[in-house]
Amino acid sequence: MPQLIASVKGVEVKHVFLHKDRTTLGRKAGNDIVLDTMVVSGNHCAFELVGVADVFLQDLGSTNGTYVNDRMVKERTRLHDGDVIAIGPYRIKYLQASEEPTTAFGGTHMGSIDPPQLQASFSVMNGSSAGLEMPVVKAVTTFGKPNVCVVSVAHRRGGFFVTHLAGSTAPMLNGSTFGADPLQLADADVLELAGTQMRFQLRE
């Protein structure tokens, strides 16, 4: 099954299997793939699955354009294995064949990862949700409020990494703001998203 692997600054943020005849991508919530950043148009582009594994990319009149291997595409374009699609800060690698996904979340299929040796979670420290514990069990988990502050926490072989994805308010890690460059999380780190503080926890 064809798949798309989206990353920002080398950190995987979405892993999507193309199982529908038409998969749409954009900033608006009604899209199959939602990338919540202003450089992505509300309805940016679409992926059309023809037959078993042929995929065509169609830009939907986006403001900032859609690029395949650094070339802007305006016409319906067939994708080839290994092509890299650039949309704003996102780099989306197209793979023509893959194994079936093992889990699904919100209609988007996520790729499986090696079982973590440590269990990770966030514990909310303040506000009405103080004491709430949120486990980090997927390859990529997002936290925050759309259009305010959204971060992703990615589990890789080297550990857990946090990245600012979208929103006008910069997140903070241990009192210092950070951006799109991934930062590795350590036990007891404090992540702050628009005033909400969460303590990162690693357990055996």
From TrEMBL:
* Transmembrane regions listed in the UniProt entry: none
Q: Which PROSITE patterns match?
A: FHA_DOMAIN
Q: Name one Pfam family in it.
A: FHA
Q: Where is the FHA domain?
A: 23-73
Q: Which domain of life is it from?
A: Bacteria
The protein's matches in InterPro entries, at most eight in alphabetical order, are given as:
Cell_Proc_Reg/RNA_Proc, FHA_dom, SMAD_FHA_dom_sf
Q: Which SMART domains match?
A: FHA (SM00240)
Please state what the protein is called. FHA domain-containing protein
Which organism's genome codes for this protein? Ramlibacter alkalitolerans
